[in-house]
Amino acid sequence: MPTPDFILDLRAAIGTAPLWLSGVTAVVLRDDEVLLIRRSDNGMLAPVSGILEPGEEPAVGAIREVYEEAGIVAEVESLAWVHVMDPVVYGNGDRAQYLDLVFRCRYVSGEPQPLDGEATEVMWRRLDDMDDLESDDHRERIRVAALREPATRFER
After folding, report:
1. What phi and psi values does residue 108 have, to the nearest 5 degrees?
2. Going along the chain, which residue ranges are E strands?
3. Exposed/middle/buried for 111, CB within 10 Å: 0-12, 13-18, 19+?
4. Phi-psi region of 106 (alpha: psi -120 to 50; beta: other; left: phi over 0)
């Protein structure tokens, strides 16, 4: 997946030192289905996610990512989960850790299709058919968002 320009600029200054980044996951629900993408970088299924641009409102960034990656218009219903992901070391040695904001989103319109090259396939999948997702963490993001709990989940 393409690295945002602001991260490339930071990397030019700090090399592979750890970066603390804000990310969003948009769990788009339509009845008993969730929107998934097949990632072009590793071929795995996952909900739509991405890195926020500097100064970007998180809910706006989540909806932007859904449209850019999947061609779907969605609406944020609530913030479902705030959590810190495990540190990541990329193949080139870059290190990062993400604060991930998981939004429960409602489908508005559009036909799922890969638009920006970050996905090779976009689909609706039943909520009870998540066995082949990229990770347990992605399954948990979907599960927490689908619960429709009135309060945001925070780790303690």
Report:
1. -110, -55
2. 19-30, 33-39, 45-46, 48-51, 73-84, 88-89, 95-109, 119-126, 153-154
3. exposed
4. beta
* pLDDT score at 149: 87
Terminal-residue alpha carbon distance, the chain: 32
pLDDT tens for residues 90-128?
A: 999 999 999 999 999 999 999 999 998 889 999 999 999
2 to each of 6, 28, 69, 128, how far by Cα in Å?
12, 22, 12, 31
- pTM: predicted TM-score of the whole model, two decimal places: 0.93
At position 41, the amino acid (one-letter code) is: D
Confidence of residue 31 (pLDDT cuts 50, 70, 90): very high
For 93, which DSSP code?
S
